[in-house]
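Protocol step 4 of 6: record predicted structures for both targets in the notebook before any analysis. Target 1:
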Amino acid sequence: MRDRAKGLPSQAVLEGIQAVFADAPLALLVLDCERRVVLANAAAAALAGRSDPAEMVGLAPGEALGCVNRLDDPRGCGWGELCQSCPLGSGVRDTLATQAGRAGVEGWLPVAGTPGRGRCVRISTAHVVVCGRQLVMAFLEDVTERRRAEDALRASEEKYRHLVEDISDVIFATDAGGILTYISPAARRVMGYAPEELTGKHFSAVVYPEDLAGVERRFREVLQERLGPYEFRYRNGSGEIRWARTLSTPVRENGASVGLRGVFSDITEARRLQEQLVAAQKMEALGQLAGGLAHDMNNILQAMASVVMLVKSDGSLTPTLRARCEELSDQIRRGAALTRQLLLFSRQDTARLEAVDVNQMINGVLNMLRRLVRENVELRVVPADGEAVVRADRGQLEQVLINLVVNAADAMPEGGVVELRTGAGEGKVWLAVRDGGCGIPPEIRRRIFEPFFTTKEAGRGTGIGLAVVHGIVTGLGGSVEVSSDVGVGSTFTVILPRDRERPRTPSGELPSVEGLEELAGRGEHILLVEDEEGIRTALAEVLTGLGYRVTEAGSAGEAAVLDDAAQPDVLLTDLVLPDASGVDLAVNLVERWPRLAVIMMSGYTADQAVRLGAAAGMVRFLQKPFEIHRLAQEIRAALDERAEK
């Protein structure tokens, strides 16, 4: 028995305590007032990696557990604080009385004999009075596996928390009534709302009112497990109306749906791109249709123009009939202008770039412009001083002017002045068309260059005029500026790069057959290949009247069997033939007759090589319908080039 004078319990008491706690599953240490182990049970020895609990008696608790630097230091895992805070009272002598100390602390301890990080031990203390002596009982609970499970769970939660917070879409949850119970931080970036602004509110707070009925119906469907994505409009934090897609699943408890959770994605940009793609596909289809219609119409107009050429060439024509023919020619030109707009819109027009003086171009079409507008509309021209030369296709530039003037006149139903003003300077040439009409509101001004957009009533506008203007001008490296005040008028200003080349002198009034002596033929042989009989017959008569010998063919096959002895000087062929293309025919015939001059003609051309060649001046091309002077000029130019070879 140990000496009581030193404040130690009797051996009998210790043996009694040890008998009680020896087989307890919880590790137990009994410390004296000097915080030395006076008793340890088997569980404590096992925790310390010892085989005999007696080995721990007399040691400090940290030393007993093999982690002296941790448990014996009050700044360590809290052992010292636990012991010091354990209340000391008189208790009842010779009995066992306890008073609770601190609830306990936990810490990872490098327990002797345990590899790696050690064991996580929860330490709880209590003060006891045994035989008038004060002792501290320490209960050591091995919570290693629990802590490891908690750490793993915490790491998993942290991982998925970051996943939810960093994902580009918004994660949300609602109760069965549609109240938002959770919304991820991405709402701030995607929707423009802080999560706390939406949590606790009904989802209808952000849904666009016109789409709310559909969203509510979809909400009920998801609760009934009718799953799938749903798209609707919503209003973001800035008040902007945008598009969203949600994909949700129901949350079930005890077999009943108690809400739903899902993903909210902003698809505004995706929908915008999709709409642009659909519009582009629609425009491509319309362009193909427009090109086909223009081709057929141009063939009809060419047949009419050829007949008018023949009638006008009759020397016995009375002045009245000649005036009627001129009027019919004007109408054919108007029809040709409309079909050319279709070709320009469908990008199937063939451009021939040359130096064009804008002032001369305006003067050349001024009479036609006056016939296109109403009598109560005055055209006033204010030309630039000197030349205002650009590099462009003259016909396309005329089309720009015609469209702008007609639009300006339509903006003044009560009449007024349309002013055409030109200018040049700083490497630019500009053409401004100003009206005093109703003006263009800002919301409409943003859409005026959209194809098929028009504010005119049915039958008064196609909606492609300004789209054609914009396409031609931007294709020439220029721009179109619009200024307008509602109730005051509008000004459209076309700005193009200036060209330093001298323009050719315009031909002025179109001459009749009798006025083409300098361009007339001298008996040269022309092979005319055209599948439209009416056009072929009329053109053959016109060419004969111009002084050429003509051989007609209705197909490439007919032209190919022409005898070598009848070698032509010029091949005048339609680009689209029933059995081959005009390009293929020309290639084959030039191989037979290397000095053969070639002129292509068509109501439109889908052949990229022909378009590029014509634009560069490498291929002679006649756009149907064409006037007699244009035909005579091309043939004479082709023959002159042949002679130079």
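Target 2:
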Amino acid sequence: MPDLLNITARLELTKEQVTDYLKDGVLIVNDARRRPRYFNGRFLAARDLTRDQTYVLSRQADLGRAVGWGVIRGMGVRALDDKRARLHVTAGHGVTPAGELVVVPDAFTLDLTSIPTGQRLDAHFGLVERPQAPARTRSGLFILALRPVEFTANPVTAYPTSVTGQRTLEHGDIIEGVAFTLIPYPTPDLGRPSLRHRAQVAREIFVDGSPKGSPEDALPLAMLALDHGAVVWVDPWMVRREAGSDRGVSLGFSGIPKATREASVLQYKAHLQDVEASPQLKRIVAAEHFQVLPPIGPLPAGVIDTSDFAQRFFPPEVDVELTVIPHDELPALISESLALPPIDLRLSGEALASTSVLVLILVERGKLRELQNDLQTLRRSLTDGRTRLLRDRSPMLALQQLQLAHLPQIIKPEVDTEDQAWARAVGAALGPLWYVRRRSMHYSSELFGEGVPLTGDDRAEEQALLERLAALNLKKRYTNLKRRGTTYAEAELVRTLASVMRRESPLLLLGAIQELESKRRVDKQAALEVATRFTKADFGRGVALLEQREPSKKVREALVAGGLLPEADELLRAAADGQEGHEETLNQLLEALADGPSARNREAIDALRRKVTS
């Protein structure tokens, strides 16, 4: 076991070594790190012991700065609901930017109308050139900070140091404490404080990186807006930072520390809650309440109208899409997205046009696969509710409507199956919807998708698939698909084709490959779309009935080339379940497809389906 007393032992230099090292320029002496050396027979003076205390405090401050300033635990600030200008501060401790430790041992209620204390602290600490006006008349923005202070107490007798000296009384203890103080935050005169000030200051801090009003020897806890002493709003995350958040490596070009980026998300959440609490607001438009949005954050309730899938929160120039992710992936997504720049809502329309946003529906992981099979695609675009009607209206229709003396009646279109599926997905969301800024560089949607489950012997399953494809002379076409696809698509490709292979129908396997080849891009989304069509429950029973009749080559080509296999299977299954007229339906289908691939094939199948369902 190592000797704990010798772990921190330093190399002691002799007087000759010090002289040589200084001469060679390899020794740096820090006079601020000088402490008394004790030995038997030395006469101690008060200055020696004071210097010893100063040395320990300086070393402690160095350690505090190494950890990083900020709140370590607790110290939450909120306004009390009574009519008095009072704040509630929870217990906790933290580190000032200068490295000093500050502690609030118990919860504390701070009365902002404590005028004498506030005046003396502000003047004594040099926060203003002269004492401010009484707290009851203060207006503007202020930083509530916690400053370490000390004072002496407990008088004891001081004996004389000379024969003729007199005994005196001196305070024998130095007591450390903390004092709350308000630091004015410099802002242009914008009238009475409101949420408009809050949006402007958020942009200054989180986009411009403004250090205005930031104290060096006090720990900021919250920003306050006061109107003649009354608290208008309290925003802790505008200035509060968590200790140790900046220890991670950051290679970003913005220069904004990680703790500030994390605080921007929390500040936006708190600001959004205050905006939503306003009873007169029915719909929230981001540009009316914020000047900047963090790269990721929650959205207000009702931001998406599921009747037409329009959104009115983001500016119309921003490209907004909707997607579904498991709720347990949100923490990792937040961590990754903090490296992206915030969304500056004061930019011009051309600059915002290059900004893309994904709206996230958070669902249970077990629900995700069910929704993916129900949805035709993993993403869908959201229109802007303010410009949708003008964009969708043709010029001729607009001229015709100008001639009408009354307003045109807008006929609401029927909601299609895809809209109903997305509406169910929005309804299955756990909590509020979230948004995330998308990178401008290309990346696939798998970042927000579901991990590929590895169940069973996937190696044996893939080998069986390859053998089956080789027997059907389809292996080369499958290899070309893999070459075109992404890594994630390859896993979904194997799973989809293996599931189709288990139907024991060469026609189905050929049809699935044909549909995959017709996709412009072979990615995971394309594979899921084909899987949705070819792996439904009871799928393949209708095609099996068709294969029993040994259809001609032209019939098979018509089904595969036209992408009609799922439709034909559904038709024959419906006819078989009804039994009556089953053979007649099968014969009519073979007759309709007898001439091979044709534009009339789908019309013929649709006509047969209507006949069967009627």
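Step 5 preliminary note on target 2. The mean pLDDT is 75. The CA atoms of residues 330 and 572 lie 44 Å apart.
Proceed to step 6 after PI sign-off.
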